[in-house]
Structure formats: C-alpha cells, structure tokens
Amino acid sequence: MAGRHFDEWTVGDKLTHEIRRTVTEADNLFFTVMTHNPQPLHLDVEAAKESEFGQILVNGTYTFSLMVGLSVGDTTLGTLVANLGYDKLVMPKPVFIGDTLHATSEVIALRESKSRPDTGIVTFMHEAVNQRGEVVCRCERSALLKKAG
C-alpha cells in the first residue's frame, strides 16, 4: 500500500509525484467523447485552428482527472475511505496534445473526523505542471483517510 494514513501526514508535507504523462490525441478524444462533451475546441482541428489557441485544446476535465490520478499512488492509495470534495479548481494555462504533465501535492490542513474516530480528513493542494514548468491545473482535495492503528 503506497498511500499514507491520516496520522502519517503533517501540514506542510510536499510531494512531487514521479509518474508523468504525455497527453495524446487519443486521451483527449476518448475522454471528450466518453463524457459527451461536444466542444469543437476539443474535437475539431479546423475549428481549433481558428481559435485563439490555434490548435486542439485538451479537455479541462481530463486535465483535472489526470492531476488527481497522478497523485493517488503517493497520497491515498489503500487508505482512502472517500473523497469529500474538490475546491478552488483553476486552470491558469492551457494544455495541448503532446504536453507532458506531472503533479505535486501539499498537505494544507488536517482534521480529526468527529463522526468516525478511526479516520481523519486531509486537505491536499494538488497542482499539475507541464514540461515548461507552468501550472496548468490546481485544486484543493479533501479526503477522508483511515488511521494507521
């Protein structure tokens, strides 16, 4: 089990997750179609060329999902009871086909669960960063985690 239990975290803990992912045309196409998103910026090369981006823009919900997925192995794998919420989601820079993303996480809050004494809530600040060092996605994730003991 790679994830940490609630009582193994400290506010200020920072991780740079080793797994990286280069976004492919297939990733963007499949995710966009699976979620029934008809936005031409994600699907239509000609329409995307006419946009301010000049090319296909990767679906933002894919970027968000990938960011969280890249973090799971080091944070909550095997220790998660439930994700409680995602807050303050922003996408300060666009993602394009061929961009390589990695994720970072920082613990920004810890709180014992009032209703479940064997768990606690960890709030992470996750960021997805491209190969140019630009933050392309950021959010806070609150996760209910098991305690170690």
Automatic annotation (TrEMBL):
Location of the MaoC-like domain: 10-118
TM stretches of this protein: none
InterPro entries named among the record's database cross-references: HotDog_dom_sf (IPR029069), MaoC-like_dom (IPR002539), MCH/BMMD (IPR052342)
Source domain of life: Bacteria
Protein name, UniProt field: MaoC family dehydratase
